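Need residues for this backbone.
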């Protein structure tokens, strides 16, 4: 073995490798932080169209990685101002709710005073706490055509006095856990107390080892406001082409002013043939017309126009 082939003593090894490793670790941490940021941003963009729940999962992971590396939370993952904050340990989609509570012995019709607005919890107590878990399912149907998209949330109470609610919607469901002290629903009363507010709510609980399945159908309403009618219904001349046949809609005109009670619109035919005619309205400008079902050939047609209708017209 020549001198050139002899192993180099450890003490004589170059020290530049050790220094390079330190620099590599620093560079790797920087690259890792940048990679985390890019992955987090790409993940959020990619799942935007998939849905809120999936996005929330990615946000939780992205923000956790950002905290490890000392980075800032992703803007797209920050909670909206005023939105209830998720609580660690809660199942995905559940939030803590702080709202006035109405306690009832059993679910029945609820009438709120006319001046009440905002979120309200309506719950019934479980003596001794829930011995078994069960599912609470809700469905809300608005009675008011001017506000058809009202929501409801399924909720339960805990021994600490906290109320946990599922995501709001026309339907909502939550699994009430063992030990829950209350269960019920969260409704929101709109701010315009001049307008009527009525809902039909279906409440269902599943059977458990100690409790049979139950259903309730209740009304959740607010006291009727003082009647106001300051509206003006207008009609415009309509000229159909000579070749027009069958039923056609005339020109619809806006309903101006304000009214908070359903009202009848009647149209009198002063002259013309005995063709069947109908009074009509539209809930939104340019929307689908709603007309008297049968129409009239006797000179008058009338239709009940609900609160919030936007236009009046006729079908000839």
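Answer:
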């Amino acid at each position: 073995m020549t001198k050139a082939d002899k192993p180099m003593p450890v003490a004589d090894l170059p020290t530049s490798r050790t220094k390079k490793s330190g620099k590599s670790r620093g560079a790797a941490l920087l690259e890792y932080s940048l990679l985390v940021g890019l992955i987090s941003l790409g993940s959020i963009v990619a799942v935007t169209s998939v849905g809120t729940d999936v996005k929330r999962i990615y946000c939780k992971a992205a923000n956790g990685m950002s905290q490890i590396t000392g980075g800032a939370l992703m803007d797209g993952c920050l909670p909206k101002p005023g939105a209830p904050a998720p609580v660690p340990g809660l199942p995905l989609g559940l939030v803590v709710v702080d709202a006035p509570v109405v306690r009832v012995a059993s679910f029945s019709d609820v009438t709120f005073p006319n001046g009440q607005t905002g979120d309200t919890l309506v719950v019934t107590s479980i003596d001794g706490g829930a011995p078994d878990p069960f599912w609470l399912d809700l469905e809300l149907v608005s009675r008011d055509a001017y506000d058809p998209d009202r929501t409801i949330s399924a909720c339960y109470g805990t021994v600490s006095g906290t109320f946990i609610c599922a995501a709001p919607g026309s339907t909502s469901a939550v699994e009430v856990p063992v030990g829950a002290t209350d269960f019920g629903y969260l409704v929101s009363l709109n701010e315009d107390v001049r307008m009527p507010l009525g809902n039909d709510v279906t409440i269902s609980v599943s059977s458990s080892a100690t409790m049979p399945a139950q259903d309730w159908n209740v009304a959740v309403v607010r006291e009727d406001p003082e009647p106001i009618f300051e509206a003006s219904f207008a009609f415009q001349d309509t000229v159909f082409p000579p070749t027009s046949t069958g039923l056609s809609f005339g020109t619809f005109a806006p309903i101006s002013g304000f009214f908070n009670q359903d009202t009848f619109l009647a149209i009198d035919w002063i002259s013309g043939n005995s063709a069947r005619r109908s009074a009509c309205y539209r809930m939104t400008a340019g929307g689908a017309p709603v007309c008297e079902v049968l129409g009239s050939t006797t000179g008058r047609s009338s239709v009940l126009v609900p609160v919030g209708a936007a236009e009046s017209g006729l079908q000839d």
